[in-house]
Amino acid sequence: MAQTTTQTSTQGKTSGKTGMAPVRTGIESTDRQRLAQAVSKAMAETYVLYTKTQAIHWNVVGPMFYSIHKLTEEQYEDLADAIDDLAERIRALGAPAPGAFAEFLKLSDIKEAPHEKQTAEQAVMMLCADHETAARTFREATQLADEMDDVVTADLLTERMAKHEKAAWMLRALVQESAIQTTGIAASSDGEAAGKQRQ
């Protein structure tokens, strides 16, 4: 009984140096720490992007109001869910999740919105660039998770990376000049090659 009590007590402790809980799921503590740091950066960028998206949702005006208002609502709701998922994954890895906005800004490559007034198009392209930044961060974190053979973390990060790539595409399309292209890159290239052969 004394041995069981000692084991339970040890499992409940965290490392004083790293703050990591002694999780025993097949990933070494140092690897879990590196993964938690990578996911923390991804979470921080998600949180900063969430606040910027929500601010644009609230404050946009002009002819593009409805389109931007609806799209940013969908995106900030998705980001809110992602923040919780990422924080829970950090905790499952045995690390504390960041919880202060100052900490998010320190970890994130995405910065707060500028204080000067922007056009609706500028604000949309700012969000587009931020989603591209987040996609790169998630890609790097996914590669690390793959190296550590952490399938659960890699799956979560891959899913989020796809979300950011799609969000960037939708925002970019919102401010591009109106057009419809019904052929893909491969089809266009084939057509150009055929035209050159006929010449």
**Taking all residues together, what is the mean pLDDT?**
87
What name is given to the CATH topology? Ferritin
**Overall domain count:** 1
What string, H for helix and E for strand, traces the elements in order? HHHHHHH
Spans with pLDDT under 50 lasting ≥5 residues? 1-12
Radius of gyration: 22 Å
- Indicate the overall shape: globular
Identify the CATH homologous superfamily.
Answer: Ferritin, core subunit, four-helix bundle
Which structural class do the helices and strands define? mainly alpha
Question: How far apart are the termini?
Answer: 89 Å
CATH architecture: Up-down Bundle
Task: Map the helices and strands.
Layout: H1 2-11, H2 29-59, H3 65-92, H4 101-107, H5 120-147, H6 151-175, H7 185-198
Helix pairs in contact: 2-3, 2-4, 2-5, 3-6, 5-6
Descriptive overview:
This protein is mainly α. It has a single domain (26-175), classed as Ferritin (Up-down Bundle), CATH 1.20.1260.10. 72% of the residues lie in helices and 0% in strands. The chain is built from 7 helices and no strands. It has helices spanning 2-11, 29-59, 65-92, 101-107, 120-147, 151-175, 185-198. The model is unreliable at 1-12 (pLDDT under 50).
